[in-house]
Design goal:
Helix content: under 10%
Distance between the termini: 40 Å
Radius of gyration: 13 Å
Largest sheet: 7 strands, mixed
Oligomer: single chain
Number of helices: 0
Structural class: mainly beta
Shape: globular
């Protein structure tokens, strides 16, 4: 059974930074592309960033390109999302998942809340 445990969210002012972490178990982590998604209040969950088998193979939603960086540590079975220059519209619950392109391939964890507000 795949388990996804997100952490690192919080309250931050516009222009600030946060680093999210996701601990993954129950699959051969290094074999899977991983991604981050988010769901804002009243909106559908959307793809944010993905990473294949190396840090040179990443891809992003246009809304976060140049501000967010996804990375992974295969030795720790973990995926990260460094978020810089945060905007109020980045406020959402953030989730990680294994991905096929920009689509999730497993059930969801509990997510971690990110609130950007002054």
């Amino acid at each position: 059974q795949v388990q996804l445990v997100e952490s690192g969210g919080g309250l931050v002012q516009p222009g600030g930074s946060l680093r999210l972490s996701c601990a993954v178990s129950g699959l051969v982590f290094s074999a899977y592309p991983m991604g981050w998604f988010r769901q804002a209040p009243g909106k559908e969950r959307e793809f944010v960033a993905g990473i294949r088998w190396g840090e040179d193979s990443t891809y992003y939603a246009d809304s976060v390109k140049g501000r967010f960086t996804i990375s992974r540590d295969n030795a720790k079975n973990a995926v990260y999302l460094q978020m810089n220059s945060l905007k109020t519209e980045d406020t959402a619950v953030y989730y990680c998942n294994s991905v096929a392109g920009t689509s999730p391939t497993n059930s969801w964890g509990q997510g971690t809340q990110v609130t950007v507000s002054s």
